Description:
Layout: H1 3-7, H2 9-53, H3 57-62, E1 63-67, E2 76-80, H4 94-110, E3 123-127, E4 133-137, H5 144-147
Parallel strand pairs: 1-4
Antiparallel strand pairs: 1-2, 3-4
Amino acid sequence: MTFQDLTSTASTERALRRTRATIDRRRKHRTPLIIGSVAAFVLATTAGGVAVVQANLTQQNHLTRCYSAWSTSSEFYDSANITDPNLSTTLNPTEQRVAAAIEACEAGWRSGLWPTTTPPGPLTACQLRDGRLAILPREKTEEACKDLGLTEPQ
Length: 154
């Protein structure tokens, strides 16, 4: 085989066809693997996202986020109300949940979790996106929760 045979148009075309055939074979074997991996990742992410978005009924009944100021970016702690020995599996009435949440956060203020032992004003209940209650120090107004991007307790 001479140098001219190796550099001829026909030789180059044969080499390109062989390379193209190799690439096509590899692509055919890899495509199902890539599609399967992407599908598995999307399903796992979606399932995890749904689990994080909504608190379960026990959490909605018994976990409260207590904020130190009228802002969801202020310092906070999560309070667990464990006075219900049965940890009911049905959602408690809103008024009962709000009263228990405010009491839990007031207890946190009294115990010294914040620099003062009393909240700086009345406490207001709003509902976080996951269904749990958030208690923040401020006078209750019609638009109070909406101003923070939260909803009224339901």
